[in-house]
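User: I've been trying to design a sequence by hand for this structure and keep getting stuck. Would you show me what you'd pick, starting by listing the structure so we're on the same page?

Assistant: Good idea, let's start from the same input. This is the structure you sent:
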């Protein structure tokens, strides 16, 4: 393809409706970005407010959008972070009229060559794109899903254990007892910055990132916890509760701190489940050693176990969901991917009071 067929650039502010129309017609009908400009702007309106973080391929002859590539810089939720640090790819789609023209590759080339992030990542990669990423030398893999069941519930309606015995929690912790303490946005502001400064794995989050990404989400409500040991803050986790027919599940979507900070919390998870009257807690992650997650009190959902720990609640689907990822970081660089990264933990429908 002659790239001159297309004008490839960042989407302008006056192209909101055109962008929404393309998503509606070529990506998914009634997508949340079509229904909620508020959410679209929150996730993709650049901090400078002079463009959207969407690369568009405009066919020069017709003036029509033939392809889009959305991206979310780490700086979207903390303007003090450098734009080039890391960005997640989001919606990546070309329409049927662009087939055979390699427009999708040109959109990605614009991202790498013009936006120039130091690292790119995708959470929720497709089988087709995984092959392309591997050819580029990027790291690819599948996120692990771990879970803990509520010990006060005998019959589960969300999760399906496939006839297997109820999983047990992790062995008794050998370290001093750790606790979870719910904190406010103001308390997060005052969190020990050393916890954030000591991050080795990328992407490196900040208190402002956590606040803007989770505390100030326009539709979802998240809960922030300190992981405490002997009164000292060892880590931070962020959760969100999903619900189906009045049955609840707690989703861990963020974890900041050294890997070991999450160990020894088995009893705390059980107390949280009982207190919140939830059926289970689950945690999708990559980059955290499995032995650490086992020591944290989680059970690993093995691919061949037949166990189903639902991921989709909007609408609810009682099925296993495997989430594949890509990251362009060097193999020597440690990384951590969680469900709150990219746009995996994004609403699929508006709350009842906003419909």
């Amino acid at each position: 393809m002659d790239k001159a067929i297309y004008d490839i650039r960042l989407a302008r502010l006056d192209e909101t409706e055109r962008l929404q129309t393309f998503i509606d017609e070529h990506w998914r009908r009634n997508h949340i970005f079509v229904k909620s400009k508020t959410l679209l702007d929150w996730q993709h309106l650049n901090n400078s407010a002079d463009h959207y973080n969407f690369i568009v391929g405009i066919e020069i002859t017709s003036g029509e959008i033939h392809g889009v590539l959305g991206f979310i810089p780490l700086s979207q939720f903390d303007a003090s972070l450098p734009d080039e640090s890391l960005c997640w790819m989001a919606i990546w789609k070309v329409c049927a009229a662009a087939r055979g023209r390699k427009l999708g590759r040109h959109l990605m080339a614009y991202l790498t060559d013009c936006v120039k992030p130091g690292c790119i990542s995708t959470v929720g990669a497709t089988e087709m794109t995984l092959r392309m990423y591997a050819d580029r030398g990027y790291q690819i893999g599948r996120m692990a899903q771990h879970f803990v069941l509520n010990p006060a519930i005998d019959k589960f309606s969300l999760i399906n254990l496939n006839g297997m015995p109820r999983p047990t929690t992790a062995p008794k912790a050998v370290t001093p007892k750790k606790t979870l303490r719910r904190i406010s946005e103001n308390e997060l502001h005052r969190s020990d910055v050393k916890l954030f400064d000591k991050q080795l794995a990328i992407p490196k989050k900040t208190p402002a990132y956590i606040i803007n990404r989770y505390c100030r989400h326009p539709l979802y409500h998240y809960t922030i916890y300190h992981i405490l040991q002997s009164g000292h803050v060892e880590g931070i986790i962020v959760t969100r509760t999903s619900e189906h027919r009045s049955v609840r599940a707690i989703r861990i979507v963020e974890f900041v701190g050294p890997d070991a900070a999450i160990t020894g919390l088995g009893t705390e998870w059980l107390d949280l489940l009982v207190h919140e009257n939830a059926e289970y807690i689950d945690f999708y992650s990559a980059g955290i050693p499995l032995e650490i997650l086992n020591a944290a009190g989680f059970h690993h959902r093995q691919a061949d176990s037949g166990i189903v720990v639902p991921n989709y609640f909007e609408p609810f689907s009682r099925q296993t969901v495997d989430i594949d990822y890509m990251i362009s970081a060097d193999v020597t660089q440690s990384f951590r991917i969680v469900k709150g990264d990219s746009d995996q933990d994004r609403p699929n429908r508006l709350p009842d009071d906003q419909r």
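That's my pick for every position. To get oriented when you compare it with your attempt: Residues 179 and 228 are 5 Å apart (CA to CA). The mean pLDDT is 92.
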